[in-house]
Amino acid sequence: MSGSLFDQLKQAGLVDDKKARQVKKEKHQRLKQGRQASAVTDEAARLAAEAVREKQARDRELNQSRQTELKARAEAAALRQLIESNRISDWQGDIAHNFVDGDKIKTLYVNRATHERLGSSALRIARLDDAYALVSTAAAEKIAQRDATVLVALTSGETSMSDEDRAHYARFEVPDDLMW
């Protein structure tokens, strides 16, 4: 009784050679299809896993950019609030104060006290949207810690004149009450 069940059935005459080949062929095809199906399944699983990884990476990048944008908005809002809460309110007048913003000369019309405080650097000019706000030097230091680009640069009173030129122009007195 050695041999496979199929061989035993063949010897007993219950299965002929034609039927045996057909059964063997079908078995072989099923095994082959199973391997192909598992290969296709493995490929599909790999592609699905890769798609999930790519989606997670895109989601992380998108979340990172959203977080960066939210942080920038929060910082801008805090800076805006700092400027608005520290701005000087009654500075407008009829004296022109010229200053340089970037590469353009701008003019603010201020009162005498404000003009003197701007000249002595007790006040600073800060950009606020499309306008300007005047803030104290202490507030300007806090603003500069967050973003110094919103402050208009101070013009130094020092010029690049030589000592000889200074001596020459020292002979010409300029009255203190003269407004330029």
Automatic annotation (TrEMBL):
Basic residues biased stretches: 21-33
InterPro entries: DUF2058 (IPR018636)
Ranges for region Disordered: 17-42
Name listed for the protein in its UniProt record: Nucleoprotein/polynucleotide-associated enzyme
UniProt source species: Acidihalobacter aeolianus
